[in-house]
Design a protein that fits this description.
By secondary structure, the chain is of the alpha+beta class. The chain has five helices and four strands.
């Protein structure tokens, strides 16, 4: 009895798998070839390489755009440095020199702000690099696979 139940389950499973394969739209040979070429791993890698090359060109173009850099610096001196100053005024006044004086110079807080704007005016190597990146893009672009990509036209 168990044998008949297991046989019935196996036949039901095979029928369900075969029915699942028939669903969908039928494809022509041209569509199958086009689908295979589009989903080929080498083609997917070539598309990724093309996108990388396009982004590299944008990176090279960005070098010639204006560059703005800014800095902000804030310092807090918990203890100001002490400078020891000898008494040089007393001898000028005819008195004996007194003890050295400890003095603190400066402020407790210090802040500075800076901005820098630069622009590439002319650089021959930049133009050579730009031409090289365009050549790289030409090399990485996908070329059609003959008539199979053009639907036989």
């Amino acid at each position: 009895m168990i044998r008949y139940v297991l046989t019935g389950i196996v036949w039901f499973w095979i029928a369900a798998c075969l029915y699942a394969q028939t669903e969908g739209q039928p494809m022509t040979v041209q569509e199958c070839v086009k689908y295979a070429l589009k989903n080929k791993p080498a083609v997917q890698n070539a598309l990724a390489d093309e996108q990388i090359a396009q982004r590299k060109i944008k990176e090279i173009l960005g070098i010639a755009l204006p560059q703005v850099n800014g800095t902000v610096q804030f310092r807090h001196f918990a203890q100001l440095p002490v400078s020891v100053i000898p008494d040089f005024i007393s001898p000028l006044l005819g008195r004996p020199p007194g003890p050295a004086v400890q003095a603190r110079f400066g402020t407790d807080f210090d802040m500075s702000v800076g901005a820098d704007l630069s622009q590439l005016v002319f650089d021959g190597t930049y133009f050579v690099g730009l031409q090289a990146t365009k050549a790289l893009l030409d090399l990485t672009q996908l070329k059609p696979y003959g008539d199979t990509m053009n639907d036989g036209k």
